[in-house]
Each structure stands twice: as structure tokens, then as C-alpha cells.
């Protein structure tokens, strides 16, 4: 007779924590923010391609604010995904995309401020 507790659920395959959807709340937020960036930037590209900047100062301001919101969302997705991996122990490979996305935009923003034109 064993005194070990009865498992509540059967363990799944060992690859599920790595290849599956993030299991922590921070990981899910990071994946959602990265999904928002993936939707926002093509929409911004469509508006820029449609010459929305020629529609007046309101459209130009909307393009600038949408671009800044996209960059801020990408940076926050990268930060939240790093927190999920380091602090919360998230192992999902899905969080590699927000980390790379945030790193790309961090390098872009730093390059804009540190490199003279």
C-alpha cells in the first residue's frame, strides 16, 4: 500500500509545455500582445499605402499615433514575455516570437535615438 497522493489528472506528453499555448497568465498576455502587433502593423501599412498621409493632418496624426501604439505594444509584449519566462517559469516556445519582436523594436528605437542621421 502506498501513501503517495492520487494524481488529480494524468500527465500529458512531455512536449506539451514547450509546444503548447502558454500556461501562465503573463505568457498568455505576452502572446495576446504579440498577436495585436501582428494585426496592427499590417493595418498601418495598408493605411500608409493608401496615401492616408495626403488626407490631411488628422490622418497623419492617426498614422503617427497608430505607429507609436504598435511600437509600445511590441515592446511591452517583449517585456511581459521575458517576465513570464524568467519569473513565472513559462516554457512555451510561443513566447519566442514576442521576445524577438520586442528585441527588434527595442533595437530600432535605440538606433533611432543613438545613431545620428
Overview of the structural elements:
The chain is mostly helical and 117 residues long. It has one domain (24-109). Helix content is 67%, strand content 0%. The protein has 4 helices and no strands. It has helices at 16-19, 25-49, 57-86, 96-114. Helix 2 packs antiparallel against helix 3 (57-86). The longest helix has 30 residues, at 57-86. The chain is elongated, with a radius of gyration of 20 Å. It starts with 15 loop residues before the first helix and ends with a helix. The model has no long low-confidence stretch (mean pLDDT 84).
Largest sheet: none
Question: Over all CA atoms, what is the radius of gyration?
Answer: 20 Å
Mean pLDDT across every amino acid position: 84
Task: Enumerate how many helices there are, as a single number.
Answer: 4
Helix percent reads 55-70%
- DSSP E strands, number: 0
**Overall geometric form:** elongated
Distance between the termini: 75 Å
Our estimate of the beta-strand percent is under 5%
> What is the succession of H and E elements?
HHHH
- Contiguous runs where pLDDT drops below 50 for at least 5 residues: none
How many domains? The number is 1
The helix/strand class is mainly alpha
Can you describe this structure in just a few lines?
The chain has 117 residues and is mostly helical. It is built from 4 helices and no strands.
What descriptors fit this protein?
single chain; 117 residues; mainly alpha; 0% strand; elongated
How are the secondary structure elements laid out?
Blueprint: H1 16-19, H2 25-49, H3 57-86, H4 96-114
Helix pairs in contact: 2-3, 3-4
